[in-house]
Task: inverse folding
């Protein structure tokens, strides 16, 4: 089993809709969790950290389920500018492990 | 500059050639990571430095890959006798965090290596 697994998509979603991605991880000792965003041919950039209690940043909500070892990202009222690849990131020990990413296309 | 700087941005090498990729992290950042990203894939971990110490090199795909950060700032990733499968974008990232990375990673724009 890969350390971090994501549905590669693409998710084709109409503008204004709500979309959610999940990501599963294999190392139960993982302590830190993040979502990064990567635009085409650009470097990844931090979107948000994921806390045990769940956290929200504007239209974005991230949640962690330690028992089932998955994290989720919910995007409400999606915008055209949300089109990107969303990378799930898990940090066990001193490593920072990226998933392969989920591609999101917001359709006008 | 304020961000992570990588050079060269683009490198075309003939198979068998040696290449060196440079990363200049954000000043004061303790942690430095190298990742390899193939087309359509997520970044794959290569190696991690805390200051000048290389704490984890388990992701380096073969002994042709070597990384160093001798003074705890600039890092160089060297690939000897390049092969076509080495073609990828090599991303460098730095983090202010120390022993247990938990802070934000700041990435450079990457070095795109094409091996012919």
Result:
């Amino acid at each position: 089993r890969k350390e971090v697994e994501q549905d590669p998509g693409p998710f084709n979603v109409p503008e204004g809709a709500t979309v959610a991605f999940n990501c599963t991880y294999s190392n139960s000792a993982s302590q830190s969790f993040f979502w990064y965003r990567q635009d085409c041919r650009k470097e990844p950039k931090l979107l948000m950290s994921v806390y045990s209690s769940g956290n929200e940043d504007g239209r974005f909500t991230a949640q962690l389920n330690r028992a089932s070892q998955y994290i989720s990202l919910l995007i409400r009222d999606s915008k055209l500018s949300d089109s990107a690849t969303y990378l799930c990131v898990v940090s066990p020990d001193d490593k920072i492990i990226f998933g392969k990413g989920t591609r999101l296309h917001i359709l006008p | 500059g304020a961000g992570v700087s990588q050079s060269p941005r683009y490198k075309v090498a003939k198979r068998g050639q040696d290449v060196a990729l440079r990363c200049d992290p954000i000043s004061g950042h303790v942690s430095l990571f190298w990742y390899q990203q193939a087309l359509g894939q997520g970044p794959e971990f290569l190696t991690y430095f805390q200051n000048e110490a290389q704490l984890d090199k388990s992701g380096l795909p073969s002994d042709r890959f070597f990384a160093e950060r001798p003074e705890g700032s600039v890092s160089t990733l060297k690939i000897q006798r390049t092969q076509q499968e080495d073609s990828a974008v090599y991303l460098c990232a730095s983090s202010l965090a120390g022993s247990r990375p938990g802070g934000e990673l700041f990435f450079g724009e990457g070095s795109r290596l094409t091996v012919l």
